[in-house]
Design a protein that fits this description.
The complex is a heterodimer of chains A (402) and B (306).
Chain A: H1 2-16, H2 19-44, E1 52-56, E2 78-81, H3 84-92, E3 98-102, H4 106-109, E4 113-115, H5 123-137, H6 146-151, E5 156-158, E6 165-167, H7 171-204, H8 208-212, H9 217-251, H10 264-291, H11 295-314, H12 316-321, H13 326-333, H14 338-348, H15 353-381, H16 391-399
Parallel strand pairs in A: 1-2, 1-3
Antiparallel strand pairs in A: 3-4, 5-6
Chain B: E1 4-13, E2 16-26, E3 31-35, H1 42-49, E4 57-62, H2 69-72, E5 75-78, H3 90-100, H4 105-118, H5 134-146, E6 152-156, H6 164-179, E7 183-187, H7 191-197, E8 200-205, E9 208-214, H8 215-221, E10 226-232, E11 241-247, E12 250-255, H9 261-269, E13 275-281, H10 286-305
Parallel strand pairs in B: 3-7, 3-8, 5-6, 6-7
Antiparallel strand pairs in B: 1-2, 1-4, 8-9, 10-12, 10-13, 11-12
The chains are: A mainly alpha (402), B alpha/beta (306).
Chain lengths: 402, 306
């Protein structure tokens, strides 16, 4: 156990201390912060006190019927003007920041024009005017229907067995499985990519023979794999933490972020599939690294295999159109794609339990086979300095013990 | 009781017979030479001994049994194909390797300081391995091999890349380890180092043990097979002579097995163009013995194929 820890810590420190890791890890939060700041700026920019104007040729707006202030955010006052000339003068005199012209045929055309100078009003200005318009349009309907019209539909879709629920207001939750799939496939692939690198490094540095007379091959690869997994998890945890902070801050300004909830059942699927998926790909990368002579050669082979792990993303549209299609069913059971496919189908549909169980069993079996094959190829290939293993030699290595 | 016992081991890689039949024993407090030409099977034998490969046949015992994880910590190995993590600092690398061999980090650091000072690497301890010269890296490898004070030390070509001063230093260290009761197996092509250091040797050729025993006894056994000559004329191409070379103005002749030095002398005496000023039956160097045995083996093999 001590050797696993020492090897894992060694790999972790080696990679985390590198400048490229710091740039790669901190780059994403920085970009996210910039994007979030830009979104908030767009949301709140502009004058938050100067009134809006309206020229209502359709007789839709009665400014006495004002919407309620939302969550402590005061709505901008709306000032009526009899015609565009007066409204334009008020805009020129900077009494108002924007005016809307509702044409006489508005109820048929549903078109409204907005006029403003160089500075585009913020989203909140248009949002406030929209509130005025909705509440005024709803005035013609009976009082019991009015709130429904103003708030809009509150659609909740539930699975027949009650296992899943989707709230129409919670649009972001809809995408969480996709985001989770992306993050976890990133962790799995970046960790295994690092593993490919350290295995070839071990070979290129000629350190493997010393290591093999010090620790067992299982400890060597297992310890390194754990350390590299910790590196990728550190990276993702920093990103997820930054994402949560960004969402918490952003929720104060952007409505849609307030409805995000934690999908616990999805987390369970992640926990179940994550380790075997990582072991599976780690085994493949170890075998490739052991069989080849240098990193570039190993990366070329790994690059082609990586496509098999990204297969579900090529069928992303199908997840929306038909999450239970035969192609996605196949990808659910295919070991390179099962993790991501199950995650993404989880977001779009209810995946039958037997499919999850069968997919997991196939993945676990594949992972065990992958690690076993990797151990055999590692034993033979790692001591072949400057020489790659041919496919025939690799197969011989798998059949016989070194 | 022997530290290492290798008995009739065999190892094939596909159709290639890397080791056919090798046997030897190594005891505590001796420096044992594992010799042989390139491709003879030395490295494969070492790898089997250290459990990197499993022999197809035969038996290997290290510390009186099969090698296991605990026994690995009692072994220091400096392989021929060696290196260290190039982009890591020297001190960090050696402490890490020491820790893997069972040392606590503080203990590893404390021992390392002494070794670094002794091998003149202390001022370079914060440098990355790739910034060190080849000789410095070689010394760092030796530290990695000895830091955990192993009972069995296996060194493959320990002097390669070293200048004469450092060669002397490494020789002294190996000798010190022997005096401390450690078992040392040394594989090298530098025969004069073997003569200077080793008590016993095994010579492997074509995957088989062809010579095994005490260096002094082996030299005595081969003493009739070497002649030192001084005189005028060309003493090359003499019948019954396996190899002839000149050194410091004298000819050193290695005789074929079964050839009597008297017969050679009689032949030379009959050659009018040659003047013999000195004819001496010499104790052969290990180098001569090595060449003689290896070339005899090659000749026998060619005869077998013909």
């Amino acid at each position: 156990m001590r050797n696993y820890w020492l090897l894992a810590r060694h790999e972790y420190r080696k990679l985390v201390g590198k400048r490229s890791f710091l740039v790669g890890t901190l780059g994403f939060p920085l970009i996210l912060m910039v994007v979030m700041a830009a979104s908030i700026f767009i949301s709140i920019r502009g004058d938050q006190t100067r009134p809006m104007g309206v020229v209502d040729h359709a007789g839709v707006i009665n400014t006495a019927v004002a919407p309620q202030a939302d969550g402590g955010n005061e709505l901008l006052p709306l000032r009526p003007f009899p015609n565009e000339t007066e409204a334009r003068q008020a805009l020129t005199d900077q009494e108002i920041q924007v005016f809307f012209v509702i044409p006489a045929d508005y109820r048929r055309s549903l078109q409204i024009d907005a006029y403003y100078w160089q500075d585009t009003p913020g989203d909140s200005v248009f949002s406030d005017f929209n509130e005025y318009l909705r509440i005024n349009l709803a005035q013609d309907f009976p009082a019991n229907i009015r709130p429904r019209l103003i708030d809009g539909p509150d659609l909740i879709v539930r699975a027949a067995d009650g296992s899943r629920e989707f709230n129409g207001r919670n649009v972001f939750s809809f995408f969480i499985p996709f985001i989770a799939a992306f993050f976890f496939i990133f962790v799995v692939m970046s960790s295994s990519g690092y593993l490919l690198q350290v295995v070839t490094d071990e070979k290129e540095n000629r350190t493997v023979e010393i290591m093999m007379t010090t620790v067992s091959p299982g400890q060597l690869i297992g310890g390194k794999a754990l350390g590299l997994l910790a590196v990728s998890l550190t990276q993702v945890l920093i990103w997820v933490f930054t994402g949560i902070v960004a969402i918490v801050i952003g929720a104060a300004f952007i409505d849609v972020l307030r409805f995000i909830s934690v999908p616990w059942s999805l987390l369970l699927v992640v926990v179940l599939f994550f380790i075997p998926a990582y072991a599976f790909i780690a085994g493949i990368m170890t075998a490739i690294g052991s069989a080849t002579t240098e990193l570039t050669q190993a990366q070329q082979i790994a690059g082609i295999l990586n496509l098999l792990f990204l297969l579900p993303f090529f069928f992303a549209a199908l997840f929306f159109a038909n999450p239970n299609s035969p192609i996605l069913l196949f990808l659910t059971f295919f070991p390179t794609s099962s993790f991501v496919t199950v995650l993404m189908r989880w977001g779009m549909s209810t995946v039958p339990l037997w499919q999850v169980a069968l997919s997991w069993l196939i993945l676990v079996s594949s992972a065990l086979l992958s690690v076993w094959v990797a151990a055999r190829i590692f034993h033979t290939g790692m001591l072949r300095y400057g020489q790659s293993l041919s496919l025939k030699e690799a197969l011989t290595a798998v059949r016989t013990r070194s | 009781m022997s530290t290492v016992s290798v008995s009739s081991v065999r190892k094939n890689f596909g159709r290639v017979e890397a080791v056919k039949d090798v046997s030897f024993e190594v005891f505590p407090g001796e420096i044992f030479g594992l010799l042989g030409p390139n491709g003879a099977g030395k490295t494969t034998t070492i790898r089997m001994m250290l459990d990197i490969f499993e022999p197809d046949a035969g038996h290997i015992a290290v510390f009186d049994g099969r090698i296991d994880e605990a026994k690995k910590q009692r072994i220091g190995y400096m392989p021929e194909e060696r290196g260290l993590y190039k982009d890591l600092q020297l001190e960090q690398t050696l402490v890490f390797l020491g820790a893997l061999k069972g040392l606590e980090e503080n203990e590893a650091k404390s021992r390392l300081e002494k070794w670094l000072k002794r091998l003149d690497l202390f001022d370079h301890r914060q440098k990355k391995i790739q910034e060190l010269s080849k000789g410095m890296q070689q010394k760092a490898q030796l530290i990695a091999t000895l830091l955990h004070e192993p009972d069995l030390i296996v060194v493959d070509e320990p002097f390669s890349g070293l200048d004469p001063v450092n060669t002397r230093l490494v020789k002294d260290i190996i000798e010190e380890q022997r005096q401390a009761g450690k078992t040392i197996i040394m594989s090298t092509h530098q025969m004069y180092q073997v003569e200077a250091l080793c008590n016993r040797i095994v010579l492997i050729n074509n995957g088989r043990t062809v010579l095994y025993g005490e260096v002094s006894q082996i030299k005595r056994d081969f003493s009739g097979n070497a002649i030192v000559l001084e005189g005028k004329g060309d003493f090359a191409n003499i019948p019954g002579v396996l190899e002839a070379r000149t050194q410091n103005g004298a000819w050193h002749l290695a005789l074929n097995g079964g050839v009597n030095p008297q017969d050679v002398f009689r032949h030379l005496a009959q050659q009018e163009q040659l003047v013999i000023e000195r004819f001496e039956i010499a104790e052969p160097s290990l180098d001569d013995i090595f060449v003689s045995v290896v070339q005899s083996g090659k000749a026998a093999e060619e005869a077998q194929h013909a």
